[in-house]
Amino acid sequence: MQAPLESLEQWDDFVGSRYQEGRTEENFRDYSTAPAGVREFYRLNHTHQTRDFARGKKQEYGALNRRQMSIWEGLEYLDTLVDDSDPDTDLSQIEHNLQTAEANLITSRENYISLVGEAPDDLQPPPQLPGLPASPDTAVQVALKDNPDILAAAKVREATGYDVKVARAGVLPTVTAFTQAGYTNYLHSLNGTGANPGEEASQINKQAAAGVQLTIPLYQGGRPGAQVRQRQALESQAMEQEIEVERGVIAQTRSAYASWQASLESIESNQKAVDAANLSLEGVRAENSVGSRTILDILNAEQEAVNAKVQLVTARRNAYVAGFTLLASMGHAEAKDLNLDAGALYDPMVNYGRVQGKWFDWDFDPKPRVQSTRTVDSPAQNANVAPGLAQP
């Protein structure tokens, strides 16, 4: 049993012996050699000071009358108290993420207005994409048949074949047929007499000619052969380019199919993550109801649940974009392929049939009118989200 100091002289003797010249810093921190009464003196002082400090803080904060704050104001105030090294409670980073998300939402809405011509209102989930293949081999077969890049490369190769034939025609005989007719009325401006005495000279002159011309080239200095070789080289280049385009389309289609499948699997995994986060949140709330978890634990669990939902929505978006990319590589991403009711689409063959019989110089089309919708009167978009739209 330790007892306090018997007298102040005992304290003075301890201080005098402790702060002698020549002692090291380590010796100053060594209290093991201090008398029992001195050690008890320090312990009692520390205990009394701790009790007085705790009572003072209880009186200062226990009454809960210092200030009244909303939940958000409370979070902002807690951010000034919690250790800044804790990333889960870094309020400034949370505010930055919120501002970035709001700016991205406004940008997306303005882009929608620019493309559609009106503000987004009551948007529905996108429909199922039609014509998605069941296997990568099926996707490749469709792409080889309908991909526009492959079709364009094939037409270029076919055109170079005709160029070769045209160049070969330079060494073949050429038959040219021609006809010519002329009529001249001098309107009594010719002087003289006709064949018979007293007759006026003929004031009308009629001419007609027809003929056939045959040209057989014998030697042209090697020019036709050079032209044929040039066209054949271009044809060979077009063939290789067609193969190159075909390879690229095949690789792009297979890659797009793999990305689409991976995005579908990502949806499943993120859905499981959302279910797990929601279950964890319910458990934390239940534990908080019995006092084993704090409000901060609930906020952290809610943040995890929100992050999981964001990842799920992102995965669904990526899957839809991957499906579009796959259909585009197959050549089936046109409005008619997607069953979009976009009104009359421009068809060059229909327009050709409409104008092919119009030969009159004054047969004009009606004055053009603007069909698009101006967006100058559309209101500036904000980041407000309806409560129902916030659920994935």
What does this protein structure show overall?
With 392 residues, the protein is mainly alpha-helical. It has a domain at 8-66. It is 56% helix and 6% strand. The protein has helices spanning 8-18, 25-28, 36-61, 71-79, 91-116, 136-146, 148-168, 223-289, 295-330, 348-355, and strands spanning 174-185, 204-215. The chain has a two-stranded antiparallel sheet. Helix 6 packs across helix 8. It is elongated.
Whole-number average pLDDT? Answer: 83
Residue share in β-strands: 5-15%
Distance between the termini: 68 Å
Count of DSSP H/I helices: 10
Unreliable segments of 5+ consecutive residues: none
Overall number of strands? 2
Gyration radius over CA:
47 Å
Secondary-structure element series: HHHHHHHEEHHH
Q: Largest sheet, if any?
A: 2 strands, antiparallel
Secondary structure: helix percent: 55-70%
What is the overall silhouette? elongated
- Give me the secondary-structure category: mainly alpha
**What spatial order of strands do you see in the largest sheet?**
1-2
List its salient traits.
392 residues, mainly alpha, two-stranded antiparallel ribbon, 10 helices
